Amino acid sequence: MELSKQPAETLQRSISLLGGGGPAELAIRQAAWVARCVGHGDAAPFTPDDLSALAASLRTTTFERGSVVFRAGDEADGVWIVRSGRLELSVGAGSKRAVVHVIGPGAVDGDIQYLLGMPLPYTAHALADTTVLFLDGESFEGLLGNRLAIARRWLTSVAMRLAESQERIIGMLGRSLTEQIARILLEEAVDGAVPLPQRTLAAMLGVQRPSLNKTLKEFERNGLIKVRYGAIDLLDVDRLTEMSG
Amino acid sequence: MELSKQPAETLQRSISLLGGGGPAELAIRQAAWVARCVGHGDAAPFTPDDLSALAASLRTTTFERGSVVFRAGDEADGVWIVRSGRLELSVGAGSKRAVVHVIGPGAVDGDIQYLLGMPLPYTAHALADTTVLFLDGESFEGLLGNRLAIARRWLTSVAMRLAESQERIIGMLGRSLTEQIARILLEEAVDGAVPLPQRTLAAMLGVQRPSLNKTLKEFERNGLIKVRYGAIDLLDVDRLTEMSG
DNA sequence: GGGATCGTGTCAGTTCGCTGGCACGGCGGC
DNA sequence: GCCGCCGTGCCAGCGAACTGACACGATCCC
């Protein structure tokens, strides 16, 4: 299902149709985009030199909707950065399937497992046609080991993910299903709508779909949301926030 | 309840009763201990220079059992490292209390919130008399910004915590209470026993104590564990592992 | 336009955990 | 040695979520 795996130059050529500028400039633009995604720059701004080192190592890959980017148990051999589209990170299958996370543009993954030398704990499915930047392990290690700004910023990036993960644990412990559902709707909303089927939402909370559906219909009766095919519109964010505890 | 907050030299003097060697050497020994706790050294060994920079900034504080190290909502003004004892990180109170984590010697906390400039999301209670090393924010920032090895190792440390946190989420989603209990007993065991009251264990899983107690007694009837006052002995680790899914 | 696929809506029976309350027994302080 | 505190053990009634199944509607591919 993998459509292409090629040097960044190829992508840059296709981007150049939109943006203008030469390939080299566009490689830098790509790297600058990644730089904006990794941490924030208050503490450690990237130098142009950092950026070109990063640009030289990024490779672009495209995945069709439904295809697998990596599988649970695979060795992590580098870092993935979602450029466009969405990936579902999940464990198990059938009624035991649990969705750990749904990540979109700007999200970074695989670095943790690479750094720790552990296999990937979940499988990544593309929920839509998705473009992914890949930074191979050796280059990653080289950037971290030689460039302080990059190591410093990457630390912030991982810290943000840890804070988010802890917040999710706090949000799950001892909460009623209703509270958890209100919370996840707010978290997963993009432009006022949650573009996920109920089955996926249920798997993110570790509950069965009928339980989720029951609460969603109740929310809908109260005018909080509108349930559509494969998506949910949020109509009253304030009251949802209030309900999420 | 805070008993003392003083330069590291004071602690070193008390350590010297046990270990021998001058104060300066002992400050280094303290820092070396921290270095072993933060990440592991495969990728970035600490230089003696790194160690003395770290040693110069560590301050020792002691907390009595039951006292509060920091409260939810406090600004994180540095990094805590548990030297001995145990801290319970929890949110809420009464029947809504949720225990996010119980941390022991070698654990690092507060750095995430410091780096991200966010308030601490949980309160830390000392479960036993506890000694904590404190690294103030400015020194921490200075170490990260100037010393690549420290930034690199700290990245590994945070990565380990993120991997652990994700594993916990995976272990909670869609698992039966029995599986979750088997899992948490294995995770929290120290020397074949879990030194926590059932109330705390229940708060770590976000369930009520009677629900936990029922399953524990069932485990005990099957010879998996022995329930004691304020602690649980693990008798059959293999079968518990099997039950944890 | 027709069929396959996927997602939603719903149900009845069952299991499971919660509520809150009380009795008992270690453990520590006085 | 006594008392108070804290932790454990347990129960009955209730409510909530699970199981697994089925009907229907939307969407997509041919």
UniProtKB/TrEMBL annotation, chains A, B:
Keywords: DNA-binding, Transcription, Transcription regulation. The keyword Cytoplasm does not apply. The keyword Transferase does not apply. SUPFAM superfamilies: cAMP-binding domain-like, Winged helix' DNA-binding domain. Residues 175-238 form the HTH crp-type domain. Pfam families: cNMP_binding (PF00027), HTH_Crp_2 (PF13545). Residues 46-161 form the Cyclic nucleotide-binding domain. PANTHER family: CRP FAMILY TRANSCRIPTIONAL REGULATORY PROTEIN, HTH-TYPE TRANSCRIPTIONAL REGULATOR ARCR. This is Crp/Fnr family transcriptional regulator. It comes from Haloechinothrix salitolerans. The lineage of its organism: Bacteria, Bacillati, Actinomycetota, Actinomycetes, Pseudonocardiales.
